[in-house]
Fold:
Amino acid sequence: MSAPRVLVIVPAHNEEESLPVTLDELRRKAPGLDVLVVDDGSRDRSAQVARDCGVPVVRHAVNLGVGGALQTGFRWALRHGYSVGVQLDADGQHDPAYLEALLEPVLGGACDVSIGSRYIARSGYRAPLGRRLGMLLFSSVVRLTVGQRITDTTSGFRAYGREVMEICQHDFPKDFPDAPLLIDLARRGFRLFEVPVQMRAREAGRSFYTLGKSLYYPYKNILASLIVLLKRPG
Amino acid sequence: MEFLSRTQLISALAAIGLAVYVLDLVRRRRLSEEYSLLWVVASVVAAILGFSTPLLRAITRALGILYEGSTVFFFGLAFATAMLLHVSVKLSRLGQENHALTRELALVRYDLEQLRAGRPDTTTPGGGGNAA
Structure:
């Protein structure tokens, strides 16, 4: 077996402005890594812009959300012989400079999923009070249910090992890629690990998590976490 | 024919109307057989309860309900709840299938684009050339 191949999966929904910046930075800071853009039903020129950067693009005909985009990315990665998939947002929040640190525990076999956390080390990121409370809440939910200490449950900067991708390409709490997904993975016996990272403000475009959803978010995610616990482990 | 109340008369007439409408939907192929069966059964039950006062009385007494109109509402509500749950289950499955199809379509479209561009062999593990 040759060295593990790593694929950086970039889910993008209407990100034509930030995609070139993100892809260019990836090329500069992580030149050895292959990249796939999953265009999640964008209405703008995201797919074309990514292709112009010389990156392969798979396009969803309709918008499925981050979870669905990740699933497509996993499947593509497995079909093309990759053994590790990294999720990196198109909006420029995630600095490719941390990729090496994020990948290290997965490549070294220390864990199955590594999560870039804004909250472990002293970082430049200062969340508003509401967000900090939410983070504490979901961190507690994960700890109480599966006994893992995860400080940054909403981080979308993660690396997934081969077995995780194999399971997740079929079965995935696709609408709940945060705490419920982590609980689901931990219950399946996967080892989660956090790596300190710093995140930046968004380059352009709209976040998947808009302000209007901020009240609904804790409600649906707590419920979804409990429902994930009810599900028969498949 | 004896009607206990206006409620019973209204529900009986509504049941007939419903049955006619359901059959018409089936005739025009707007409703699949699976659903039409459920709706036909429901409207027949409602019609029987509506027109047969002795039966309605007997069921009402057997269930310990005080007022016959409540029996009609009880069955209506029970049916509506069951139907909503059934539709939610169907909708979940439809959503999952739709989700899976969208993902598969994206991958197939990618392969097709590769083939058209003269770069086949994209599904062989290790065969995907995609360095930027």
User: Anything to note?
Assistant: Helices of chain A lie at 18-29, 46-52, 66-79, 99-107, 129-146, 162-168, 179-187, 216-230. Residues 23 and 66 of chain A are 18 Å apart (CA to CA). Chain A has one domain: 6-230. The domain at 6-230 of chain A is CATH 3.90.550.10 (Spore Coat Polysaccharide Biosynthesis Protein SpsA; Chain A).
